[in-house]
Amino acid sequence: MAFGAAATLVAVRFLARGWVERLYLEPDFHFTYPGLSWVRPLPGPAMYALFAVMAVAGIALASGWRPRWSAAVFVVAFVYVEAIDATTYLNHYELITLLGVLCVALPLPGSGASTRATVPVVTVWILRFQLGLVYFFAGLGKVDADWLFRGEPLHTWLSGRTELPLVGSWLGLPWVAVVLSWAGAVFDLSVVAFLLQRRTRAIAYGAVVGFHLATGWLFPAIGTFPLLMVALTPVFFEPDWPERVARRWRSNGLGVGDAVAQVGPQRQIARWVLAGAAVWVAVQLVVPLRHLAYPGDVRWTEEGYRWSWRVLLTEKEGVATFRVTDPATGRTRTVFPSDELAPFQVKAMSVRPDLIRQYAHHLADAAEESGRVRPQVRADVWVSIAGHPRARLMNPDVDLASEPLGFGPADDLEPSPL
Amino acid sequence: MIRSVAIRSSLVALALVGSGCGGDGEKATDSTPGMTREEAVGAFVSEVVVPANEVAADSAEAAASAVAALCASPSEASLVPARAAVAAGWGAWRATDTFDMGPAMDRRSTSVVSYKVDPEKVDVALAATPPTDPETVRNRTSSSVRGYGAAWHLLTADAAAFAGQPQRCAYLSAVLAVIVEEAGAVRDGWTDGLDGAPAFRETATGSGSDALTSTDVIDAVVNMQLSQLETSAKLLTAVAEAEPGSTHELPAGELFQLSAQMGGFSATYDRLGDLLDPALVKTVAKEIATIERLLSEASMLPSEVDPTAADAGEVAEAVEALRSTIATEVVSALDVTISFSENDGDS
């Protein structure tokens, strides 16, 4: 129910804030994921319809109407939209996608289910695992010198919030950022353990609510993420918690008639379900750690950065220009990406080597398609990360248009200044 | 030969507005340790923005007076100071580009004072029936034939043209009257408020119902600077990379205006620099000084723009260096939201 509501909220926000137009319909060029370049925006009305379908599917899911089908419709539409442009990637969209997939794959109680409806225990534990993973990897990502000892980027971000009432005057102080950095890391790394123990669960959930309310207040740009986590974390409670709440309400004369899922020990868990769950868990553990297989600091290289739950972790600003050289004449012209890309694309691309490479390919492809010799494309990219002085991100002498696109380790990056 | 005296004077004026900036990049920073964003923005508004707009308004009046003197007694002796005064006024106005918010933004003042001018259209208007009263210039004249650019173009004629062509003086005077009115309104908007609105200096420092936060002001200023630098970098790069013999030229006055804008940049980081690491402030000051040095080697006045005099490629590189520093380190340090980046962000 909570997930369905969150799914609806996400879709409605896109429609209400004009993001369908701005993010998907207005740009002439979209950054894609390897192998997904065929995913293009639908024509205008169809894109709006797609988001409307997502909203309706979310409502259906929240109300328990054909939950598997509702979730499937939502996930297919949401993944399609997310695959259109890699610059719109966000961690909580990934979480929504994965939870949607789980809603399709896992047995869930449907509408009309009695308050005694049961689900296999694996359903509850997979959902707990998925949410717990977000906290754990977010905490793990905070274990670095910038975060813990310089209080960066939190200090930078909090310095911009000094006008907030009550606490504002404290937020600009460097030691406050360090203390909050440690608090954030400790919270992320430990909260799951406390949520799993009955004795500490209520306090831990209170901390979850407090933590997410605070981050939502301090950093409004993170949008629905705090709400999503607050709404979904009760999955750590005993599965019959809604019924107990309902009983309490009924004893106060209030009627609540919602379906309540319970773990049913009497239900047999099929082997294939267990096998599927094991594979899912393994993949979810390996994917966020895959950056360890690449050389260099993942914050700099971004190789293995996506899908690794590094939530609100890095302050990275960049600027990129491209030099396009005709090998036949030797003439070079400079391309400013803002001439073609939307501002949000320029901002995202300028700090992500894979997107910079992709744009270099696009420039070369465009020249070739217009009948010219395929040019060489080099990039001048400067990036400042976590408040460090700017440094070159890409080797300016490498022809990026001839570099492969994909998941292999890159050799066109400059050394990390971190 | 007209040289860079006029623009220098306006920059000096702006430098006085700020807290002082050496020309060699070794800025005498009087940063205030522990200053909050609100205090820094308050100081920036009261010590930089408001005085800069006062300088722009005063310079416009001085330009109008000099032109009146020219028209009353056309001669080479009155033409030279008129040109200098108009260039100084134009430079003072462009130095406020960085703070193009509030009254100037609301009134769309740039379209009246300093929009891109088409000299050929100015000549056509002059030869036909030029607008000779302020009301016509303001309300029934295209932005491409009014403002400082048009005034400057009208002043490029020799002194005899002013004696023998009364409509030139009438047109020029009307254009300047509108500039004086507009620059004055913008100044008053900052200091006293316009049309019942509170003074924008109060709004920009967090007072009143429409108050801006210090973050709003910083975001607006830094985004404006990045936009200006990118525009200049594109123009200069296009000239530097133009094929030999091509007619790709910088729009009239581009180097002049860039130079004037650097005055605004310097003044900005004199005050907002209090929020930045001193080493970063020093880097920014040095990069601004580099641009100013390169431009000072070229002829500075609009009609004398010759991109080859100031190597366009070299200036473009210097502009790009400054843009890189601001777009990365300054944006990061001041936690600036880059315009239109409004999708929820958690990565």
Write the layout of secondary structure elements.
The complex is a heterodimer of chains A (418) and B (347).
Chain A: H1 2-16, H2 19-25, H3 44-62, H4 67-84, H5 91-105, E1 118-119, H6 121-141, H7 145-150, H8 154-159, H9 168-171, H10 174-196, H11 198-218, H12 225-232, H13 241-251, E2 262-263, H14 271-286, H15 298-301, E3 316-325, E4 332-335, H16 343-349, H17 353-369, E5 376-385, E6 391-392
Parallel strand pairs in A: 1-2
Antiparallel strand pairs in A: 3-4, 3-5, 5-6
Helix pairs in contact in A: 1-3, 2-3, 3-4, 4-5, 5-6, 6-10, 6-14, 10-11, 11-12
Chain B: H1 5-17, H2 37-72, H3 76-94, H4 103-106, H5 110-113, H6 119-127, H7 134-139, H8 147-155, H9 159-164, H10 166-191, H11 200-203, H12 214-240, H13 254-272, H14 278-296, H15 312-333
Structure characteristics:
heterodimer, A: about 425 residues, alpha+beta, four-stranded antiparallel β-sheet, two-stranded parallel sheet, globular, B: about 350 residues, mainly alpha, A middle domain of Talin 1, 15 helices, disordered N terminus
| Helix-strand string of chain B | HHHHHHHHHHHHHHH
Strand order of the largest sheet of chain A: 4-3-5-6
SSE class of chain B: mainly alpha
Helix/sheet category of chain A: alpha+beta
What global shape of chain A is seen? globular
What does the average pLDDT of chain B come to? 83
Level-2 CATH architecture of the domain at 47-197 in chain B:
Up-down Bundle
Strand content of chain B: under 5%
Question: Number of helical runs of chain B?
Answer: 15
Which sheet architecture does the biggest sheet of chain A show? 4 strands, antiparallel
Number of strands of chain A: 6
The portion of residues assigned to helices of chain B is: 55-70%
Number of domains of chain A: 2
Multimerization status: heterodimer
CATH class of the domain at 47-197 in chain B: Mainly Alpha
